Amino acid sequence: MAHLEEVIARVDAAVAENVIEQMNELLIELSDDCELSREDRYAQQQRLRAAIVQKGHHHKADAEQRRESLTKGGKII
Fold this sequence. Notes:
Strand content: 5-15%
Protein name: DUF2526 family protein
Largest sheet: 2 strands, antiparallel
InterPro entries: DUF2526 (IPR019671)
Region (Disordered): 54-77
Keywords: Coiled coil
Coiled coil: 13-40
Oligomer: single chain
Distance between the termini: 57 Å
């Protein structure tokens, strides 16, 4: 179980840092981790995928909000 706890801590840290590149690298690394059961590996990968999707949605919402604030009456100000 020590390895699983280490992996969970690494996933927690990657999610907290909220950097997609690091989360993707960890996803790939977990794909080749033979020490974890299939279920444990999948659960941690799903946590990373969910964090990546959430960041993507947040980024899209920020971009839309910025565009709305820059445009008024059809003109970019």
